[in-house]
Structures are given as structure tokens and as C-alpha cells.
């Protein structure tokens, strides 16, 4: 189909973006062909009247776990046992794959046209990526890591990451990922909020630095970038010293850490969303223990301080909402942009640029998507209100286009109890 989008205001995804009127964006199949003045002959195009809405690039969520629903838990689950059960039979695997595909569709229908998965079930993420490309499933563009590499007792070991006992086992998992066709590699270097048993020690170093170094070197030889889960200053330092390309989450940095970011050319993926409920919710709501709440606050403040310091030092930052964690659903990435503005102090325009043009560039797909330009993919969304005035405009998406398909008035199933609690912090 050839579409002509008119009657709206264009936000192009660049750092200096401002609403532009009097223009028509035309597409042919899955590509933007041109942007022309209103009044241009539109013969042969299906005209889409935006009725004053705002047309912009689709959002890019840089930290996703597709297997999670975001449903709040009254107590911690045994994720390793659950995943083992899910993958135990052909039937349960089929049901689980359908669930993952449904969550990816929720991402798309909420305005996210590209996701970067950083830990998933078996090879589901690469399979789904290929199914979407082939038109067998509806969903966003996927940059997939499949299972992460962890260590025994490490973060997400046995669920969305494999526990490598030795460097050789870690390299074997890296090779397995290569055979599955992954797009990037994910390491679980430290623990997280729920792993810590004492106050003040979230993000304990779990993966030996020598394992980080060898895996990064081999991954780079294979042409992969390496993303790393780290939630402590020690973890950030070990990751950067040994070759990691992106720090996922982050922690309060010192001058040495900032130097390592610059020397390594690494970027930060800020994830405020998953830490906020543990840090700011009343424990009667979050069901967190006193230790978990205390450590959640340490991580929450560390992530924000890391983002602020990175931006001050011109270290690039992207956004991910660690979707799948409790209270973080597959359809509310817009909240991460809002928190980035509220807690880190950036403008609405910079938050939107971070989640579009900048993320595309740092994900290595800047020539394909992220901005509205002729020749790029027609990854488009429309909102009725102006997100530069209020990022909450992104909560309601009027239209989504991806892979050449136009989805009008896309709908997702909402978790009202989750939204009611999170809305208190808008």
C-alpha cells in the first residue's frame, strides 16, 4: 500500500525537533518515500487524515524481557523452576511462545516499533524476530539477545539467562547464541535488588572479571556488541574495564567510571521504571521487604545519578523500561520517557529524541529507523496531543505503522491496578 499522511504535525526524531505543519509524509510499502508540501498530487495514495495529530517515529525500547507480563507478585517466584516447567514439553513451549508473541504485539500497539531484548526464553526472541519479518506474526522490529549469560547464583540464572560455571561454558553459550542468529550478547555481571540479603549491597559482583573480558573479546570478534546488567559502582567498573559496550541500569558513578565510559565509547541504558516501585511504593503495595525497599532506593537513586552524570559528560544515554519486572507492563514504555524528564531533568523533546533518533543510532540501526526521512523504514506513530508539551500524550496512540502495515486505533489490554499505583508518580 501507498499512504499519504496529511493534516498533522511532524516531529522528525532529531535532537532539535519542533512540530512542522503543512507537510505530507508519503510511504510505499514499508518505506518513507518523501515528505512534500500539502497540495502535492496524491493520486495513487491512500490518504490518511491525521486531523491535527502528531506524526513521529515509533519509539525504541532498548531493554525488554518479552517473557514477563509485569504482574505484581505478593512474594518472589522460583523463576528457574517456572521456566523449566514452561520449556519441558512441546505444548507448554507452544503456549509460552504464543504468550511472548502477544507481548511483542502489545509493545507495537503501544507505539514501540523497535525493541532490544536482553534476556529471554530459549531461542524465542530470534524466532519471533524472524516470524515478524516474514509476516507470520505482528510485532515490532526486534534486536534479540535470546538467553543472557550469567553464573551460578547470578542474576536471572536458569530463567532468562544461562548459568555458566566456567569461561568455557560461557563461550559455549556465546556460540549457541551465534548459531541461533542473535543480534547482541547480554551478560549478567551483578545481582539486583532482589538478590541482596542486606541493606546497602544491591548489585553485588557475581561474574568474575576474567570471564567478562574473555566473553567480550570473543563476542567482538564475532561482530556482536555486549550489553551488561550492572547495579553497583563495582559492577559498572568491571564491565567497562573488560569490554562491555552498554551499561544496563547503572549506579552512582565516580570520575574513574565516567573516564572509562568515554575511553570505552560505551553508552548507558537508563531504566528508572523497575526500580521506582521498590523505592517509592508503600511496602503494603509493593510487597517488598524492608531490605528490598532500602536497596530499591539505592538502585533507583544510583540509576538517576548515573544518567545525570553521563549527560553532563556527553556520554550517550538511551532508555529501556526493563519490561517484565513487577509493575512494568509490555505497553507502558512511555512512562520511562516521563521519568527521564521528571527525575533526570531533561526536556520533553530530549526524552523523545533519546527514545527515537538517538536509540536507533546507538543500536546500530540509525540508517534504518529512528527519524522521519525519505528512504528510512516507515516506523510511525500518531498521538492526538503534543508529546513535546506533555509526554503523557504518548499514553494514547492513535495509529501505528510498522513493516508496511497500518494499525488504526490499536488496542492493548490494560492492568488497571498497576496503572492506578504508577499514576501516583506522574
Give an overview of the whole structure:
Residues 54-405 form the Amidohydrolase-related domain. The chain has 426 residues and is an alpha/beta fold. The protein folds into two domains: 2-57 and 374-425, Roll (Urease, subunit C, domain 1), CATH 2.30.40; 59-362, TIM Barrel (Alpha-Beta Barrel), CATH 3.20.20.140. The chain has helices at 79-86, 90-109, 124-133, 167-180, 209-222, 233-241, 255-264, 275-280, 283-286, 290-312, 334-344, 348-362, 416-422; strands at 2-6, 9-10, 23-28, 31-37, 46-49, 54-57, 59-64, 112-117, 141-143, 148-150, 161-163, 185-188, 226-230, 246-249, 267-270, 317-319, 380-383, 397-402, 405-408. The strands form five sheets. It has a five-stranded mixed sheet with strand order 2-6-17-18-19, with no helix packed on it. A five-stranded parallel sheet has the order 12-13-14-15-16. Strands 4-3-1-5 form a four-stranded mixed sheet, with no helix packed on it. A hairpin with a 2-residue loop joins β3 (23-28) and β4 (31-37). The radius of gyration is 21 Å and the shape is globular.
Amino acid at each position: 500500500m501507498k499512504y499519504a499522511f496529511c493534516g498533522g504535525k511532524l516531529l522528525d526524531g532529531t535532537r532539535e525537533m519542533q512540530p512542522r505543519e503543512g507537510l505530507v509524509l508519503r510511504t510505499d510499502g514499508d518505506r518513507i518515500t518523501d515528505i512534500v508540501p500539502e497540495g502535492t498530487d496524491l493520486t495513487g495514495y491512500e490518504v490518511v487524515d491525521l486531523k491535527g495529530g502528531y506524526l513521529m517515529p515509533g519509539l525504541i525500547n532498548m531493554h525488554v524481557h518479552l517473557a514477563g507480563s509485569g504482574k505484581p507478585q505478593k512474594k518472589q517466584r522460583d523463576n528457574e523452576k517456572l521456566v523449566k516447567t514452561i520449556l519441558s514439553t512441546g505444548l507448554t513451549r507452544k503456549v509460552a511462545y504464543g504468550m511472548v508473541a502477544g507481548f511483542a504485539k502489545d509493545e507495537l500497539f503501544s507505539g514501540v516499533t523497535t525493541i532490544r531484548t536482553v534476556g529471554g526464553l530459549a531461542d524465542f526472541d530470534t524466532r519471533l524476530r524472524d516470524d515478524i519479518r516474514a509476516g507470520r506474526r505482528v510485532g515490532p522490529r526486534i534486536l534479540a539477545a535470546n538467553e543472557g549469560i550469567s553464573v551460578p547464583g547470578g542474576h536471572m540464572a536458569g530463567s532468562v539467562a544461562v548459568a555458566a560455571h566456567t569461561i568455557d561454558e560461557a563461550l559455549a553459550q556465546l556460540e549457541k547464541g551465534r548459531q541461533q542468529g542473535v543480534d547482541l550478547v547480554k551478560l549478567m555481571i551483578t545481582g539486583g535488588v532482589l538478590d541482596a540479603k542486606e541493606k546497602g549491597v544491591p548489585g553485588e559482583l557475581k561474574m568474575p572479571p576474567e570471564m567478562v573480558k574473555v566473553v567480550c573479546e570473543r563476542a567482538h570478534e564475532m561482530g556482536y556488541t555486549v550489553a551488561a546488567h550492572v547495579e553497583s559502582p563495582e559492577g559498572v567498573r568491571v564491565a567497562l574495564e573488560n569490554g562491555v559496550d552498554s551499561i544496563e541500569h547503572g549506579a552512582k558513578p565516580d570520575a574513574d567510571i565516567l573516564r572509562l565510559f568515554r575511553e570505552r565509547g560505551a553508552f548507558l541504558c537508563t531504566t528508572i521504571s523497575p526500580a521506582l516501585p521498590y523505592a517509592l511504593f508503600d511496602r503494603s503495595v509493593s510487597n517488598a521487604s524492608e531490605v528490598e525497599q532500602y536497596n530499591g532506593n539505592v538502585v533507583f537513586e544510583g540509576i538517576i545519578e548515573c544518567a545525570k552524570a553521563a549527560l553532563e559528560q556527553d556520554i550517550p544515554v538511551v532508555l529501556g523500561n526493563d519490561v517484565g519486572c513487577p509493575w512494568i507492563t509490555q505497553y507502558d514504555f512511555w512512562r520511562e520517557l516521563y521519568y527521564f524528564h521528571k527525575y533526570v531533568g531533561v526536556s520533553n523533546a530530549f526524552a523523545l529524541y533519546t527514545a527515537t533518533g538517538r536509540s536507533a543510532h546507538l543500536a546500530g540501526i540509525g540508517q534504518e529507523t529512528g527519524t522521519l526521512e525519505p528512504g528510512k523504514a516507515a516506523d510511525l506513530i500518531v498521538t492526538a496531543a503534543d508529546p513535546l508539551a506533555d509526554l503523557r500524550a504518548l499514553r494514547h496512540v492513535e495509529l501505528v505503522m510498522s513493516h508496511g502495515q497500518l494499525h488504526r486505533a490499536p488496542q492493548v489490554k490494560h492492568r488497571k491496578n498497576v496503572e492506578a499505583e504508577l499514576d501516583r508518580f506522574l
